[in-house]
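Technical annex, item 7. During the second reporting period the consortium partners agreed on a shared format for inverse folding records so that results from different sites could be compared directly. Each record opens with the tokenized structure and is followed by the designed sequence. A conforming record, contributed by the partner at site C, is shown below for reference.
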């Protein structure tokens, strides 16, 4: 079978992970890359042996015959690039966060739907194998019906060293990192109906909030706490581990540090090692994220081949992005926010 021909737009900090992972997927070949920064374009093109290079996305889309395009630029350019792909009838993956505002995000989803073009948001954290292991433990039913959850990411890792732009935005931790953790809460406990949120900025050298504590009501009846911090210095730096607690009517699940998964019922506790594999291109501690990049890309290739909608389609991701908007509104106003307020 012919390989799917893809192009990648944005050759920055994270894109190299995406290119490494594409190389592991036999069904896909990345035939061209694009970046408006000539130095980055040259460096990535040389290191991955990709000869067809473009400084301009419109030129790329009109010159190449593509089965899909993978947008790995920062958020400000997402809407224009996705709409360009939709206009060219090219299936498109777009990195998180989908857009700067809910209105932009909805317009992107509608543009792709109107053009009949698949859109997947690269929302990869739910693809991490430890998170999949938590979901499998819930689905196995041993803990009964979940009623409480906590999804937690607390760190003092210097994320600004690799991604300096994160220090500059008015929004920081909920938009960049919390969006993943909120998506995991949706993945584990189902869609949420309302959010209560509090934010803080502890690091004086950045513009946005670096601490967020959110309380979610899920339609399933679960109440969850989603908490994120880049201002928490711990005895052991856990970046980028997400810790999970689930309490159910018949037991509990804990995803603890270093991927220790504990399921406890009246019969006692079962402990398993849910550590992700370290893929050939990966390096600790990023390996858990790098593995999820491979898994979400493999999912995209399967979906394109079968015509199935991706799990993190644009339409699905609107629900995660609505949580982001609701959390910011809730933190600003100090009151609970119904999701319907931000999606109306
Ligand atoms: P970056 O700034 O390092 O790289 C972005 C690149 O895109 C730059 O080289 C820039 O020149 C290029 N670019 C921007 N607009 C362009 C345009 N219109 N046309 C062509 N090139 C353009 O950013 P990054 O840290 O690699 O982040 C990129 C995206 O990936 C962001 O949306 C970020 O949130 C996301 N990200 C996701 C994860 C994850 O685990 N899913 C991890 C890190 C970053
Ligand atoms: O996933 C992300 O968007 C990254 C990181 C995990 C470092 O926050 O910015």
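Designed sequence (site C submission):
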């Amino acid at each position: 079978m012919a390989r799917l021909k893809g192009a990648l737009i944005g050759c920055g900090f994270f894109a190299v992970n995406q290119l490494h992972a594409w190389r592991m997927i036999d069904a896909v070949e990345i035939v061209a890359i694009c970046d408006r920064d000539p130095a980055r374009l040259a460096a990535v093109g040389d290191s991955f042996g990709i000869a067809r290079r473009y400084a301009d996305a419109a030129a790329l889309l009109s010159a190449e015959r593509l089965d899909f395009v993978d947008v790995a630029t920062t958020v400000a350019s997402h809407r224009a690039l996705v709409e360009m792909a939709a206009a060219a009838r090219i299936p498109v993956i777009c990195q998180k966060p989908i857009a700067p505002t809910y209105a932009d995000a909805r317009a992107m989803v509608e543009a792709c739907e109107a053009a009949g073009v698949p859109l997947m948001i690269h929302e990869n954290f739910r693809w991490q194998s430890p998170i999949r292991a938590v979901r499998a433990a819930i689905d196995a039913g041993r803990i009964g019906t979940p009623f409480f959850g906590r999804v937690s990411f607390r760190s003092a890792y210097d994320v600004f060293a690799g991604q300096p732009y994160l220090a500059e935005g008015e929004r920081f931790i909920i938009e960049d990192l919390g969006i993943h953790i909120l998506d995991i809460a949706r993945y584990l406990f189902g869609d949420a109906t309302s959010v209560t949120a509090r934010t803080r900025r502890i690091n004086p050298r950045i513009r946005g909030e670096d601490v967020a504590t959110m309380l979610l009501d899920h339609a399933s009846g679960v109440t969850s706490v989603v908490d994120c911090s880049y201002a928490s210095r711990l005895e052991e730096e856990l970046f980028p581990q997400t810790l999970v607690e689930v309490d159910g009517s018949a037991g509990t699940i804990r995803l603890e540090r270093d991927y220790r998964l504990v399921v406890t019922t009246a019969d006692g506790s079962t402990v398993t090692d849910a550590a992700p594999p370290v893929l050939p291109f990966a390096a600790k501690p990023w390996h858990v994220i790098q593995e999820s990049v491979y898994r979400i890309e493999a999912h995209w290739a399967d979906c394109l081949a079968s015509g199935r909608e991706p799990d993190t389609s644009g339409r699905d991701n609107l629900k995660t992005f609505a949580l982001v908007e609701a959390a910011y509104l809730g933190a600003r106003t100090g009151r609970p926010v119904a999701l319907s307020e931000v999606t109306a």
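The chain has a mean pLDDT of 98. The longest strand covers residues 146-154. All partners now use this format for quarterly exchanges.
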